[in-house]
Every structure is written in C-alpha cells, then in structure tokens.
Amino acid sequence: MDLMMYWSQRLDSHKFIKRNIQILGDATIADWKNFMRDLCLEYFIRYPIAISGVDHVVEIDESAWTKRKYSRGRLVGTRWVFGGVDRDTREGFVVLIDRRDSATLILLIHQFILPGTIIHSDVWRAYYSINNHTHGPERYIHHTVNHSLNFVDPTTLVHTQNIENLWMVAKMKEKN
Hints:
Layout: H1 2-8, H2 14-20, H3 26-46, E1 57-68, E2 75-86, E3 92-97, H4 102-112, E4 118-122, E5 141-145, H5 161-175
Parallel strand pairs: 1-4, 4-5
Antiparallel strand pairs: 1-2, 2-3
C-alpha cells in the first residue's frame, strides 16, 4: 500500500523507493510504475469523466507531440493529443487522436464536456461546428481567440493560456 501512496504523491523516484521501500531492482521499480500507470489508464477508459457545466469555462486545444531519435536529431514520430481544462476546478482531459477533423473533435467535446459549458478555443476550423444546429444550438457557448493576432482577445478577453500551459508543462516533463 505504501508504494501506491508514494506513487500517487509523485514520490516515486528510483532513489526514493530504494531508500524507503527497500526494493533494490531498477527493473522491478520500472515494472511497478508501469503497472500503476496502466491501472489508472484502465480506470479512466472504463469510467470516463465529463467536466464543467453551466457557467464554467473550458479551454480546448490540440497539440502535436514529437520525438527525436536518441533525444536529438531527426524526428521519428508525431502524436496528436486533444484536451480541455476547466478554469475554475482545474479538472481536465487529454486523449490521443488520429485525426484533427471536426467529426473527431466534436465527438470528443460531447464525450468530455457537459452541455451548458462555455468553451474557449483558437480559430482552428474543426471547432467551427461547435455551435452548429445539428449538435444543438444551445449545447455550448463558444468563443474564440485568433492567435495570429494576439494571445488574449483584447475585446472579449478570451484566451487559451491554461491549456497551452498544460501542453508546455507536460512536454517539459516528457523530456526529463
């Protein structure tokens, strides 16, 4: 049980575990950490959450994650992710996606964001149909910011800084 508690609190460095739990093998520690990640993944696949609701703002965005061979040199793969963050509760979701088209993203928005939510996004064309009548005209309130002009819309104050920050932090952690 101690292992699970330490992992959930991010006290799971190999050095920490070797000192406090007396597990000496690096392979055993790596296997245990992979098991914990798989367990969490399985839970969220079985019980997906929907975030936000009336009067909440969720920022959405998609991001490319690339890898370089041996951490330098040429790119060897690009993965796309889509996610959203509630500004107030800080709840969120991130999913791997194969396509960034409207059909894919709207389906994920409906799956992970409750009706009545205010959605802030950039002006990516796939988001244009969020307020489309086929999806219910009052399902969401959608506001956009044009990043080619500014990061925060000077008139409406719409921005996506929180989800952009999530991508930055996650990519920094992946590099370490």
